[in-house]
Automatic annotation (TrEMBL):
The protein's name: Sigma-54-dependent Fis family transcriptional regulator
Stretches assigned to the Sigma-54 factor interaction domain: 138-358
Modified-residue entries (4-aspartylphosphate), positions: 54
Keywords carried by this UniProt record: ATP-binding, DNA-binding, Nucleotide-binding, Phosphoprotein, Transcription, Transcription regulation
Keyword Iron among record annotations: no
SUPFAM superfamilies per UniProt: CheY-like, Homeodomain-like, P-loop containing nucleoside triphosphate hydrolases
Native source species: Shewanella glacialipiscicola
Domain Response regulatory: 5-119
Length: 447
């Protein structure tokens, strides 16, 4: 996550949710409110680095908020969102101190481009923590591959650390000083993915009020990570293949070709070869990207990583919580971590460590602080107590039904997360969260 905090003020609940999805997927830390008045309350409780606010809202509205900010937080940048028809008022707002405005409707990319001008993302993300021989060998291999300019396909189950490995490759390549741009192909709505990847000119489609460079252009000279590439539609796969072959891109609605110098990395948590065999992924694209395949094993296949990772996550979250003395894991807590199967991999371990930090009573984390969902298979822990499951607002039966619906829809859509999210009417982010929760509970999901 970015260390910077962003305050989003929008009274239209569905637009607010969509904007929040976009910002959070881009790793920004956000608080959202529905009015200028609530924004003022939030400003009294938290420190922010950027405010994005709608102009037309009930009550004091965006301009009233801007006025308040001018008086109480004159240095805090404010980005206003306004309907196209009322751009005049946005221009006035800039005179009143807003740093810029966005004309609605705007593409997620336009929002992210604007935000990144005021809030740089934290670049020193997790370095891979490894201790197991298998992981050490993988990292050594990744380091050698990094030195080349080859495309790399990183495979591995969800939460195993594929993005961490991708960043590691970039950091150890000759492109390390240039941009690392990641795009999650499963999280961006199908109709926006092409524009997001390749960029567009003003007027290319309804709502394209400003020209916008695509991810390929943003990664110029650096590395582009195509996360969850298997979720890309076949028609877009064909266009991606052309860009990779020709090493040039044309923005949507544009006539100019732009030469590219971009290294491409991709990840998938599905068995891509079988997706190819089933006709869901182009074979030619598979071979173009799969020049060098790397595969993270599941966490339970590299048990020597568990405790060093747990320690690393403890330090990381203790720092975030301003805990000065990082607590230690006692013998039983360590045994409990080592005896679990970790179906949700490192992400699940991360959750467990965060819970433990909250639950611990003193400087030692005990087995009682290690809460793993009770459905999980616990190996060799007969002598350990059974732990209560996390309280959850949703009744057990309802939750089980939801799991069945998700599983059935996954089968129906042959594993395509994007289609499943569309069919169930939930955002890709919500689906990812629910699937991660299901994995954490030990439910097997199709790759
Ligand atoms: N070896 C590692 N060292 C440090 N942190 C790690 C490591 N592996 C994973 N993590 C952490 O675990 C979390 C999940 O990792 P990451 O997002 O890279 O997994 P992923 O395989 O890309 O997941 P998904 O397929 O769901 O996108 C992140 O918070 C990441 O920082």
């Amino acid at each position: 996550m970015s260390e910077a905090k962003l305050l989003l003020v929008e009274d239209d609940a569905s637009l607010r949710e969509a904007l929040l999805d976009t910002l959070m997927l881009a790793q920004y830390e956000c608080i959202d409110v529905a009015s200028g008045e609530d924004a003022i309350l939030a400003l009294k409780q938290h420190q922010f680095d950027l405010v994005i606010s709608d102009v037309q809202m009930q009550g004091i509205g965006g301009l009233g908020l801007l006025n308040y900010l001018q008086q109480h937080h004159p240095k805090l940048p404010v980005l206003l969102m306004t309907a196209y028809a009322t751009i005049g008022s946005a221009v006035n707002a800039i005179k009143l101190g807003a740093v810029d405005y966005l004309a609605k409707p705007f593409a997620p990319e336009v929002l992210l481009n604007q935000v990144s001008r005021y809030l740089p993302l934290k670049q020193n993300v997790d370095q891979p923590v490894v201790a197991d021989d298998k992981s050490l060998a993988l990292l050594a291999l990744a380091q050698r591959v990094a030195a080349s300019d080859a495309s790399v396909m990183i495979l591995g189950p969800s939460g195993s650390g594929k993005e961490v490995l991708a960043r590691y490759i970039h950091q150890h390549s000759s492109r390390a000083d240039q941009a690392f741009v990641a795009i999650n192909c499963a999280a961006i709505p199908e109709n926006m993915l092409e524009a997001t990847l390749f960029g567009y000119e003003k007027g290319a489609f309804t709502g394209a009020y400003q020209a916008c460079p695509g991810k390929f252009e943003q990664a110029q000279g650096g590395t582009l990570l195509l996360d969850e590439i298997s979720e890309m539609e076949l028609s877009l796969q064909a266009k991606l293949l052309r860009v990779l072959q020709e090493r040039e891109v044309e923005r949507l609605g544009g006539r100019k070709t732009i030469k590219l110098d971009v290294r491409v990395l991709a990840t998938s948590n599905r068995d891509l070869k079988s997706v190819v065999a089933a006709g869901g992924f182009r074979e030619d694209l598979y071979y173009r990207i799969n020049v060098f395949p790397l595969a993270w094993p599941a966490l339970n296949q590299r048990p020597a990583d568990i405790l060093p990772l747990a320690r690393h996550l403890l330090v990381k979250h203790a720092k975030a919580l301003n805990v000065a003395d990082v607590p230690e894991l006692d013998e039983n807590a360590r045994r409990r971590l080592l005896s679990h199967r970790w179906p949700g991999n490192v992400r699940e371990l991360d959750n467990v460590i965060q819970r433990a930090l909250i639950l611990r009573a003193g400087q030692l984390i005990t087995a009682n602080d290690i809460i793993i969902d009770t459905q999980d298979v616990i190996l060799g822990s007969e002598d350990l107590e059974l732990f209560a499951a996390e309280p959850d607002g949703l009744g057990e039966e309802l939750k089980a039904q939801e799991h069945v619906i998700i599983l059935e829809t996954l089968n129906l859509c042959q594993g395509s997360r994007k289609l499943v999210a569309e069919k169930l009417g939930i955002s890709a982010r919500t689906l990812r969260y629910k699937m991660a929760k299901m994995r954490d509970m030990g439910i097997q999901l199709p790759n």
